[in-house]
Amino acid sequence: MPPTVLIVEDTQSLAMMYQSYLLPTGVNTLVASDGQTAMDIINKVPPDLIVLDVMLPDMNGLDILATLEPDNSPQVVVLTGHATKEMAIQAIKLGASDFLEKPIEADRFRITVNNALKIKNLKQTVTQYKNKYENGKYFDLIGSSKQMQSVYQIISSASASKATVFITGESGTGKELCARAVHQASNRANKPFVALNCAAIPKDLIESEIFGHLKGAFTGAIANRVGAAGQANGGTLFLDELCEMDINLQSKLLRFIQKGSYQQVGSEKEVKVDVRFVCATNKDPLIEVENGRFREDLYYRLHVIPIELPPLRARGTDIIEIAEALFVKLALEENHPYKSISEGVKQLLMQYSWPGNVRQLENVIRNVLVLHPEQYIDTDMIPALPVSTKTQTQHTPIISEQPVSTETPAFDMATSQSEVKPLWLAEKEYIEHVIKICVSNVPKAASLLDVSPSTLYRKIKSWEELE
């Protein structure tokens, strides 16, 4: 699409002349003869560039410039027949990219407009790059690991296509964030993104939620309703927990995907829409197909571009990147004075297996912020983390080559009063022994002792003070 230039000029002959200057460039032009008309156009059809006269019948053109948002706003070239140095400086400070004094030659006008449009394209490119890749981020996804870089590459490669994306991964790995990244990276980013959780909607209502219904189509249908498919027209429809969809409705979904049209509940009229499908499930879809719970033809229709999100425990230092971002985000929500986390907290987060993935990590961080108002987060503030035997056995981080024994030392009973030790010292020796056989893995030692890691860290700190 060619760029759009809005010419704000109250003298009709000058506005027409500026339009004629731009004819060879192929840009679209709009004209506003006063400030209010210009602002209405900017709000409804944001232009790429505004050629803005200062002296307008209803306001000063610089007042319009001052209302524009600094981010993602049009480029502005200011025109005036009464130029002063102060006015030029003010225009540039308010965000104008150039300043022209009337009368203006055609070549100078075209060159100025072309340069401003080039700056606009460059800004958009830089913004897109920052949104995608800055600081290990890709839109709302966070992580610099090779696994996540592979995910980002798939999304980027598929961004220009309408092909269906099928996301799999454990619960809590960020499948909806991935789906949103697919939408944001595509040319549909300015269109609706509609998410529907198939597991959260009763089976007798899900057809209406997807396709909509007419008034009176069933008991409780008191008005016409546009379903998710209609709401997502031109954009992306995300079907989460797809394998939970009733088998009888899957045939209608297949027909919708094949034809691009559907019928609302209670209607015989076909509604045609342009929708890109993104699906997600935490189950193995092939197993669901083998067990007859998911249609094979629907699976192959949807499984075009597969993306498998890795569990958090397999993403290395991504855990720290995500945790630090979540601390900042949740601290704002909770009005918390958070500054940073200690190295001990980072080690603790890395050592845990996170069976609930990012969702569990977010809940733990919110717990810490709610219960501890301190600016700096230390290990004794981290709550006891539940141990999943299956997950800990298969995915224990920081694996040691030495076998971890669960046997405890057999301490000899004291044979005389002189051999009796203080309780804290006996406890210290015992705990230190368990930590030693766990190769200094404090969370593992805490698991064997059936206490929280924060309890052990507090005790270790208190022993240091006693010594």
Explain how this protein is built.
The structure is a single chain. α13 crosses α15 (357-371) and α17 (423-437) crosses α18 (442-449). The longest helix is centred in the first third of the chain and has 28 residues, at 106-133. With 467 residues, the protein is α/β, with parallel strands linked by helices. The chain has 19 helices and 18 strands. The model is unreliable at 389-410 (pLDDT under 50).
Concise overview:
By secondary structure, the chain is α/β, with parallel strands linked by helices.
How far apart are the termini? Answer: 74 Å
How many β strands by DSSP? 18
Query: Helix amount, in percent?
Result: 40-55%
Mean pLDDT, to the nearest integer, reads 85
Largest β sheet strand count, sense and barrel closure? 5 strands, parallel
Strand neighbour order, sheet with most strands: 2-1-3-4-5
Protein topology:
Blueprint: E1 4-8, H1 12-22, E2 28-32, H2 35-44, E3 49-53, H3 61-67, E4 75-80, H4 85-93, E5 98-101, H5 106-133, E6 137-138, E7 141-142, H6 146-158, E8 165-168, H7 175-185, E9 193-197, H8 203-211, E10 212-213, E11 225-226, H9 228-231, E12 236-240, H10 247-259, E13 261-263, E14 270-272, E15 276-281, H11 285-290, H12 296-302, E16 305-308, H13 318-333, E17 340-341, H14 343-351, H15 357-371, E18 376-377, H16 389-395, H17 423-437, H18 442-449, H19 453-466
Parallel strand pairs: 1-2, 1-3, 3-4, 4-5, 8-15, 8-16, 9-12, 12-15, 17-18
Antiparallel strand pairs: 6-7, 10-11, 13-14
